């Protein structure tokens, strides 16, 4: 029996009003792999995530999350997805542990203190921060709380919108290591990003999105994985689409 890919998009078209944003988009993210979507402003990267999450309906084409059409069963699709938006929404007046406890209970995956502590340790959140309120946390620390929650849910699909924007190189490298461990556990990761270096560091495949369709895909090969210079030339050549 052939396995249903965690993310599959076939010939997808979607629009906001009169503005056709996704245009014959096709994309597959297999189990245990990381795909990065790059593209200029307004190319349709975040919209691709919105369709997978069932926030926007496709006009035509097919989309499935572990075999579920998010337009037909958005809750079913979302139960299989951990989603990190660019600006992670956490509760400022709760501590890191309380945030994790609350968010996991909300998503129907309650976890005990021990599991949360293990996840915080795994993502490198310093122990003294676990019981601190989020008010004074840096963006990197917030990302760690959010990714710990996402990983604790052990869902098959992880969607990330600009996960490394605003992170320093050390925090970006730490974050990429976490993604690698999620991949090793079988998670299908789709990240949209402008961070070519981070994508080249961690992704198995990079797709370039232009005007709502993937115009080129490159796959990591050999010890050097990607030809960064060629990617940079390619990426800088992508036209910007007015928002
Ligand atoms: N909620 C919305 N309502 C109407 N139009 C929208 C909405 N969200 C996005 N758009 C439009 O859809 C197009 C694609 O936007 P999208 O956010 O998917 O691009 P992006 O590739 O993620 O860009 P960026 O790199 O700037 O984040 C843009 O023209 C944008 O103005």
TrEMBL record:
Enumerate the GO terms in the molecular function aspect.
Answer: ATP binding; ATP hydrolysis activity
Entry-linked CDD domains: ABC_DR_subfamily_A
Which SUPFAM superfamilies does the UniProt record give? P-loop containing nucleoside triphosphate hydrolases
Keywords recorded for this protein, A-Z:
ATP-binding, Nucleotide-binding, Transport
* Keyword Calcium attached: no
Lineage top rank: taxon: Bacteria
**Pfam family name, one:** ABC_tran
Please identify the protein, giving its name as recorded.
ABC transporter ATP-binding protein
